[in-house]
Design a protein that fits this description.
The protein contains 4 helices and 11 strands; from the N terminus they run αβββββββββββααα. The chain has 212 residues and is of the alpha+beta class. It has a 6-stranded mixed beta sheet, with no helix packed on it. A 3-stranded antiparallel beta sheet has the order 3-9-8, with no helix packed on it. Helix 2 (135-170) packs parallel to helix 4 (192-208). Keywords: Disulfide bond, Glycoprotein, Immunoglobulin domain, Membrane, Signal, Transmembrane, Transmembrane helix.
C-alpha cells in the first residue's frame, strides 16, 4: 500500500532557477495525483538559506493562498498556481542576493500524501552594468555630449585657421601692424576653454612665423 501511495502522487520542479536582483523569480512546481482534487489538497513551500540551517515554511495553500506573515519573504511571495491543472507555482517579488537557497514544493492530496521531494536552487545575481543606467550616468552623458561637440567645433575652427595661415605663409604674406590692430581686443579674463584656445592659436602663430 505504501508503494502504491508513493507512486500515485508525483511532483516536478525546476532544479535550478536564475533570477536578477529586483526582478521577480518564478518557481515552477507541477504535480500529478491519482485521486480527485479536493479542498483537502495542501501545498507547502519551504526554504533553506544557502548558508544552511533549518527549513522554514514560506508559503502555504489550502483552498486559498496563505503567504507567510513573518520573515524575509513577508509580502514578497505570490501564488500563480492552479491546483485544478496540477500547478503549484509561486513567484518571489524583488529578490535579493540573500534569497539564494533551496526551495522545496510539497503537495498532499489525501489520500495521496506520499511523493518525491524535488528541490529548486534559487540563484539571484546582479545584472550586468550594460543594463543599468542610473540617473547619475544619464546626467553624465547629457553633460559629456554637448561638451564634446563644443570641443569638436573648436578643433575644426582651429584647423581652418591653421590652413589659412599656412597658405599665407607660403605666399610670403605677413600681417601688418594695422591688420593686427584691427583685430578685436578681449579685455575679459578668458575661462578654461578660452585659455586653451588662445594657447593653441599662439602655438600656431609662432610656428608659422617667417625666420628673419
Amino acid at each position: 500500500s505504501g508503494v502504491c501511495n508513493a507512486l500515485s502522487l508525483e511532483i516536478k520542479a525546476s532544479p535550478k532557477v536564475r533570477a536578477f536582483v529586483g526582478e521577480q523569480a518564478l518557481l515552477k512546481c507541477s504535480f500529478r495525483s491519482s485521486s480527485p482534487i479536493t479542498e483537502s489538497l495542501l501545498v507547502d513551500w519551504t526554504y533553506r538559506p544557502l548558508s544552511g540551517g533549518q527549513m522554514e515554511t514560506v508559503f502555504h495553500y489550502q483552498s486559498i493562498p496563505h503567504p507567510t506573515t513573518a520573515g524575509k519573504f513577508k509580502d514578497r511571495i505570490s501564488w500563480v498556481g492552479n491546483v485544478a491543472k496540477g500547478d503549484a507555482s509561486i513567484v518571489i517579488q524583488n529578490p535579493v542576493l540573500s534569497d539564494n537557497g533551496t526551495f522545496i514544493c510539497s503537495v498532499k492530496n489525501p489520500p495521496d500524501v506520499y511523493h518525491n521531494i524535488p528541490q529548486t536552487v534559487l540563484v539571484v545575481t546582479e545584472r550586468g552594468l550594460a543594463f543599468q543606467l542610473s540617473s547619475a550616468a544619464l546626467l553624465s552623458i547629457m553633460v559629456f555630449i554637448p561638451s564634446f561637440l563644443v570641443v569638436l567645433l573648436l578643433l575644426v575652427r582651429m584647423g581652418r585657421k591653421f590652413r589659412v595661415l599656412k597658405e599665407k605663409g607660403k605666399g610670403g604674406y605677413k600681417k601688418s601692424s594695422i591688420e593686427v590692430s584691427d583685430e578685436p581686443e578681449h579685455t575679459d579674463t578668458p575661462g578654461c576653454g578660452g585659455k586653451f584656445k588662445e594657447w593653441c592659436l599662439n602655438c600656431v602663430d609662432t610656428d608659422e612665423e617667417d625666420p628673419y
